[in-house]
UniProtKB/TrEMBL annotation:
Chief place where the protein resides: cytoplasm
Catalytic activity reported: L-aspartate(89)-[ribosomal protein uS12]-hydrogen + (sulfur carrier)-SH + AH2 + 2 S-adenosyl-L-methionine = 3-methylsulfanyl-L-aspartate(89)-[ribosomal protein uS12]-hydrogen + (sulfur carrier)-H + 5'-deoxyadenosine + L-methionine + A + S-adenosyl-L-homocysteine + 2 H(+)
Residue numbers spanned by region Disordered: 1-25
Cofactor requirements of the protein: [4Fe-4S] cluster
Binding site for [4Fe-4S] cluster 2: 168, 172, 175
Positions bound to [4Fe-4S] cluster 1: 36, 72, 101
Record protein name field: Ribosomal protein uS12 methylthiotransferase RimO
Tree of life domain: Bacteria
Organism encoding this protein: Lutimaribacter marinistellae
A GO cellular component entry from the record: ribosome
Compartments where located: Cytoplasm
Keywords of the record: 4Fe-4S, Cytoplasm, Iron, Iron-sulfur, Metal-binding, Ribonucleoprotein, Ribosomal protein, S-adenosyl-L-methionine, Transferase
Amino acid sequence: MSTNPPSLRPDLAPAARVDDSRRDGQPTIGMVSLGCPKALVDSERILTRLRAEGYGVSPDYAGADAVIVNTCGFLDSAKAESLEAIGEALVENGRVIVTGCLGAEPEYITGVHPRVLAVTGPHQYEQVLDAVHQAVPPSPDPFVDLLPASGIKLTPRHFSYLKISEGCNHKCKFCIIPDMRGKLVSRPAHAILREAEKLVDNGVKELLVISQDTSAYGLDRKYDKNLWKNHEVRSHITDLSRELAQLGAWVRLHYVYPYPHVRELIPLMAEAGSNLLPYLDIPFQHAHPDTLKRMARPAAAARTLDEIRAWRDICPDITLRSTFIVGYPGETEAEFQTLLDWLDEAQLDRVGCFKYENVAGARSNELPDHVPEEQKQERWERFMEKAQAISEAKLQAKLGKTVEVIVDAVDGEAATCRTKADAPEIDGNLFIDEGFEDLRPGDILTVEVDEAGEYDLWGRRV
């Protein structure tokens, strides 16, 4: 049992969980998966392909014939973390294949770690498999090596990330992800729905929809129509969300830009008994129009407040999560104060915050008037103090209310659960510390909230 730390980085996926079942003589690959949920899905796909070819999966270095490190290149600190993980894998195992976002810069990796066996970029699945085949030849046993129907999952059995597209068409100056992952490429709607249905059939209770820009889904396909269960479904986030909600699991939307058509989702969330959770994860990044222009992002913070009010009028229970950057080059005290004032007015439920970092290759590096580190830290602390106060007040307002929760874990102290307002890892928890012994991960039950903290709730079963 642990409470949610307020400084948790909002770009990270849950730690990968690996099943250590293998047969005698089976070639075995280890996996270190860093970065965001999109990278975790890539890791799952790689391991699923390897398991289909007869490889085992090892949860540790010692039991693996080689190790794949799926890297992150989001921030310079994330790059450093990736290089450290590669170095650790080399020391502990010695046979290391690198993939993921940082793999788009192979010379950067081999310059530090020349002993790696191969370097591949993001979602280059075939190249990763080729590198594994060369390092550790497959030795399949078709009578023993059975692949789970849902593939290899690195998340707990009761929730799963569902990636609907790759890449991004935005050109934000602080971000190099589009350079690494390319422009928007959406999956066909029927392929997503088929995967989601298979996951639900195999016990998944919550689908977390992810991409680089979820609300742009289908734009590159010109919102083409796909046949699904004897009717047509557009490759459009509204149609996709409606269909996903019919599968019987909770559906949670992440990385949603506030385009005008997002308002079409809100009535679906407000429907009684809807499985499309009243939750939007929207990367606002800042609120001052001049800062947003320097970021090369839409600079309509005032209109965004109007949109938030309209969403809440339709769906009063909607939970809004966002991420912000403080200390962006050129950010003045007045601009930062505008952000604090905007946050006061927006009253967002869940908030994450980064201190700006230069990232090699980002256009923001060349902007003038970079903010000193101590000033970034001071602004981050003021921002988080404001966000924490808003969170605490919102959670206090839940006292005495009954809410549905999903159980994530059970130990000797309590059942750790989440409400519909909480995504795994990045949001808060609800703890049941009495009468929880018969609960299991994935159970969904009703709870009355009887205690509230700054980020977490406690409750009793109803």
